Structure formats: C-alpha cells, structure tokens
Amino acid sequence: xxxxxxxxxxxxxxxxxxxxxxxxxxxxxxxxxxxxxxxxxxxxxxxxxxxxxxxxxxxxxxxxxxxxxxxxxxxxxxxxxxxxxxxxxxxxxxxxxxxxxxxxxxxxxxxxxxxxxxxxxxxxxxxxxxxxxxxxxxxxxxxxxxxxxxxxxxxxxxxxxxxxxxxxxxxxxxxxxxxxxxxxxxxxxxxxxxxxxxxxxxxxxxxxxxxxxxxxxxxxxxxxxxxxxxxxxxxxxxxxxxxxxxxxxxxxxxxxxxxxxxxxxxxxxxxxx
Amino acid sequence: xxxxxxxxxxxxxxxxxxxxxxxxxxxxxxxxxxxxxxxxxxxxxxxxxxxxxxxxxxxxxxxxxxxxxxxxxxxxxxxxxxxxxxxxxxxxxxxxxxxxxxxxxxxxxxxxxxxxxxxxxxxxxxxxxxxxxxxxxxxxxxxxxxxxxxxxxxxxxxxxxxxxxxxxxxxxxxxxxxxxxxxxxxxxxxxxxxxxxxxxxxxxxxxxxxxxxxxxxxxxxxxxxxxxxxxxxxxxxxxxxxxxxxxxxxxxxxxxxxxxxxxxxxxxxxxxxxxxxxxxxxxxxxxxxx
Lengths: 273, 290
Known about the structure:
Number of helices of chain B: 13
CATH architecture of chain B: Orthogonal Bundle
Strand content of chain A: under 5%
Number of strands of chain B: 0
Radius of gyration of chain A: 23 Å
Order of helices and strands of chain A: HHHHHHHHHHHHHH
Largest sheet of chain A: none
CATH class of chain B: Mainly Alpha
Helix content of chain A: over 70%
Oligomer: heterodimer
Strand content of chain B: under 5%
Structural class of chain B: mainly alpha
Largest interface: A-B, 96 and 90 residues
Mean pLDDT of chain A: 92
Mean pLDDT of chain B: 93
CATH class of chain A: Mainly Alpha
Number of domains of chain A: 1
Low-confidence stretches of chain B: none
Distance between the termini of chain A: 44 Å
C-alpha cells in the first residue's frame, strides 16, 4: 500500500516536470499555426481555432528565413565535416602514433580547455578581418575546424585500439594514411557518430560568434535572424513562434533520432577530469 | 615503427587551426587588453597606444561594469543551485525503481537542452507576457495580480533564471543518472538488511557517492552560467534599468557596439579571472571536506 502511494508520488512529480518541460515547446508549435493577432487575446488560446500556415509563409517569403535556414544548414554541416576530419586525425595520432613532445602537447591542449571562448573573440575578430573573412561563411567555419574537446574524445576512444592491429597492417606494407582510412576510421565509427551529432547541434544553436562575425543579413544563421526579427516584431507572437519552430524543430528531430549517440558524447565529456 | 613525420602530418591540421584561431588570440587578447584599441585604431593602427593596466583600472571604476558583475553573480548564485537541485531531484526520481516509462520521461525532460536558446527565449518572452502570457493567466486564477515580468527590474532577472533552469537542468540530470547507475547495488542491499529507510539510504549512500559528480557538475555549471548572454540579449536587451545586463553582454557592447576592443578584452580577462577564482574556491571547499 505504502509503496503504491510512493509510486504514485514519484510518477506524479515526473509527470508534472514533463508537463513543465514540454508545455512551452508544444504551445510554441500551437501558436505558430494561429492567424495573426489570435494569440494576443484572453484567455490565452491553447489550440488554434482556425489553423493556418500564414505565419510560415510570412517568415519564409517576407522575412527571408529560407536563406537563414540554408545558412545554418551549410555552416553546421561544414563545421561538422571539417572538425570531424581534423579532430579524428589528431586524436588518433595523440593516442597511437609516437612523436616527440606528444604528451606535453596534449597536456597543454587539455589545460587550454579552461579558457572560455569569449576571451579570444576580440583578437579573433581582428584576425579574421585582416584575412578578409568577416562577413563570410569562413569566419564561422575556419575557427571551428578543430576543437580540443573533440580531439580529447577521439583520443580516449582510440586508446582502446589494439596496437597489434596497426602493426599487422604496417607489416602488410600499408601506408599510415591507408591504415587510418581502412583500419582506424571504421573502428572509431561509434565515437565519430556521437561527436558528429554533438558538433552539429552545438553549431546550429551557437549564437554569440555568428552574431559578431556575420552582420550581413544574407549570411545570418537562424538564431541570429530570429533574434533580430524578435527585436523588430515584438507584438507578432504568432510569427515569432513560427520562426522559433523552424529554428528548434530540425535539431529536436535530429536529437530524437540520434539520442543515444548524443547522450553518449555528453557523458564522455563530463568525466574528463 | 612509425615515422614522426607521418604523425605530425596527422596532428598538424588540427594544431594549426587551434593555434591560429585559439591559442594565438588568447595571447593577443592579453596584449590587446593593455592597449587603447578603439574605433580609431580599427581604422588606422597608427592610433594604437600601449596603456598598461589602464583599461582594467577604468573598468573597475565604471559603475555599469559593477552592475553587470552584480547581475551576473545574482544569476549564478541563484541559478546554479536551483539548476543543480532540479537536476538532482529529477535524476533521483528517474532512477527510482518506482518510476514507470523512464525513457519517455528522460527524453521529455532532456528535450529543452537541445533547443536553440534564442528560440526558447522568444517563446519565454511570450509565455511571460504581462497581458497575454500563460504564466500571468494561470497566476491570475490563483489570485495573483499580473506581474510585469520582463518590464520590472525586480522580476526580469528571476524570469531569466527560470528560463535557464528550465533549459539546462536536463543536461546535469543525465550526468547524475549515469553516476547513480554506477553506485554498487550491494550497498543498498546491505542497508536494506539493516533496515535503513529510503531517506537514510539517500543521505548515507546516494549523496556521498554522488559527491565527486556533484563537484564536477557545480564547477562546469558555474563556469557556464557566468557566460550569460543570449537570454538578456533576446528577452530584455539588458534592461530594464540595466537589471539584466551581464558581464558578457557588457563586453559585447563595449567591443562590438562601441568598438572599444581593448577595454572589452580587459572585461573578458576580468571575467575569466573571476571564473578561475570561483572554480578554485569550489575545489578547495570540496578538498577541505574530504
């Protein structure tokens, strides 16, 4: 009897928390289908009485969010592909290839993890300006093409590859690049999948750096475009909710599809000390 | 045996990127913070002068910087414990043998973590709308008169804290669940044989076993919360009356609105130093206890 009451309490509280977690997202979706002005009435409507796509047409056609969507897609994909390649190669080398100063170099990199990214923003902006990369896709992609966290993650995983496998491949006369591509990369696939989804989501949601380096409206990513739209259209709740749905939905779907890999990466990162 | 040249070939691309776009700028930022780099220097480097620690001194004499620092500390001091408390509570609930449909609950509670901050800040602004927001509507039924959440200097920061807790608690929750699962079941069985109640088991087994995780989570969350920026940028633009202006927002305005890149670098280092000191204190505190 007592345990049934306890079970009811536990599940009841969980249900309450779930409601709080999901309600803002569900309401966001619901309001995005309401005709302009319908959400600014009392009592606040839960469901659209006459569902409409007019807000989506507005943000895509008039507010130029198609372009922002493509920018976000391009940048997140570009960063993910490049950083995955560079981090994997480096992480593998730090784990399995011998070279002078390897341990010291790795320790230095790990030490640099404590430096918050904002410290570098001002000089980085000046550097990119010098290189002519401010207001170009390169301004976002280039600095993100390799990351210490990614290298660390790949290295930890690559340490588990048996040396004998690599030696055997070398005996067969395979070059280092060939070994990397045919032996190492397939073995690293699980960690690469995790890192890929983690990087993609992080890049898609990134706000501060794209805001600084991409001031041209045609190059803006979804979060930046949405933020500037939100400043202009304070009263147009329905339209802003449609913009929020477009920004959130792709990453939410991706997360639901690859949840296990994402959480795997999160956990690996949290035990780094 | 592998050739060192081949190994360097593997690490060189990543090192080049990190060196050029991260490590070099860190050093440059330190240098920049000792200059009066402003919009004139941006136009012509001949206008650049070395000013020593003048930026730091000036910042520490700027009331607005102190206000931003105070606001940020408020956000951290209230937000981090609240965040971790909710994470820990929900992790304990999800870990309980009494919980049903765990994976559904876990996914639902985690969902806000992967959403874009800007988008949910926009949603939050609507939820907390004084006239038409759902929050005031529900509170109205409980007899509370409408609160001007984002327009009242007393309520703007609490609203932002609620957003941060809502969006972030799932992250630490997942970490707590993983370390709860790592606690040996034998400990609980022994306690049960001794007749220890659930609350005693929690106090004497679960919480002590979670301590290392708790420390790690505290350090990471604190460092993260010091970097408050997008929430006030979207929801309040630092207002009303600068009540939600954070240090990072202050840095952004100083650097990229007024182009005082030297002063902005000084702000960045002051913030970095503060995070560093607080992390050190947290680690010390934990070290003294064990």
